[in-house]
Amino acid sequence: MDEDQQLVQNYSDGNEEAFEELVKKYQRQIYSYAYRMTNDAEEAKDLTQKVFMNAAKGIKYFRNESSFKTWLFKIATNAAINQSRIRKYPEVELDETMASIHDSGLSSVIDKEMQEHIKQGIAALPERQRLAIVLRVYEGLSCAETARVLGCSEGAIKANYHLAVKKLREFLKEHGYESGS
To answer: Which among 20, 64, 104, 146 would be 20 to 30 A from 12, CA to CA?
Structure first.
């Protein structure tokens, strides 16, 4: 039994501190993900709180079929999707991970302009493609973990991810950035 499974079991057995340990372990990752999904610090804080409240209430349904982290990201994704239905889905914030993937050796001014275009391109993607990019690139989840989070097959994740990359390349090309591949 791994550390997360033990903490989940301890919490289920009535040890409140066990859940606090899970929150400490994953709070920063969930906040970062929520921020990328909302592009708003206050909304990300609220969403993070909601995720952990939902996890605490629903932990009895956690069956160890996936990692606790994957289960938590599924809760976060569902909360973000529900929030996006309330208001239009915002642009996804670009971070250093995506910038390094698309580093083209341009000056920092041009790099910032390119980052803005990538950010706009990601925001324009259909929801499933946007989620596939964010979970795979920003959160570093595998195809299998992303599939569990989004409740679909690995093949669907691979297809959505590759379509998203293709659309981002086309978007960048339209804005004067040539792809090296």
So the answer is: 146
